[in-house]
Amino acid sequence: MEKRYSQMTEYELRQEIASLNEKSKKAEQMGMASEFAVYERKKIMAEAYMLDPVDFMSGQRYDLKQENGTFFLKYMNGIFAWGYKDGSEELEAVPISLLVND
Fold first, then answer.
1. In this structure, are residues 82 and 75 in contact, taking their beta carbons and an 8 Å threshold?
2. What is d(CA 14, CA 43) in angstroms, rounded to the nearest whole number?
3. Which residues contact 75 (CB under 8 A, 6 or more apart)?
4. In sequence order, what DSSP letters do the residues of the chain get, joined into one string?
5. What angle do CA 72, 75, 77 make, to 5 degrees?
6. CB-based contacts of 53-59 (< 8 A; 24+ apart in sequence)
7. Which of 15, 82, 84, 90 is the most exposed place for a label (fewest CB within 10 A)?
8. CA dihedral 54, 59, 65, 66 (to 10 degrees)
């Protein structure tokens, strides 16, 4: 049975991310777009568990990785930041690994 990301050590998370990078490259080379997207999403989640949620502050605006735009952080719940993308009125959650924390 596989461990959850929340139960992994930093070393195990780094190994998992390396493995997912390899799998996503292979999927991309083989033209398997949906499989590539799954591996990329898993990688984003694993990266989020390597960050400290305390480093992200409610009421702050952050740039979004992989997207042009910003995210206004309303509150945190675990490794997820809840807030609003670029002036949207729809509350949504993103993994903290997608936030650029300068």
1. yes
2. 10
3. 58, 82, 83
4. -PPPGGGS-HHHHHHHHHHHHHHHHHHHHTT-HHHHHHHHHHHHHHHHTTS-GGGS-TT-EEEETTSSSEEEEEEEETTEEEEEETT-SS-EEEEGGGEE--
5. 125
6. 53/78, 53/79, 53/96, 55/101, 56/81, 56/96, 56/99, 56/101
7. 90
8. 140
**Contact criterion met (CB below 8 Å) for 73 and 41:** no
Other CB atoms within a 10 A radius of the CB of residue 53 amount to 13
Whether the predicted model's global pTM rises above the 0.90 cut: no
pLDDT in tens, 51-98: 999 999 999 999 999 888 999 999 999 999 999 999 789 999 999 999
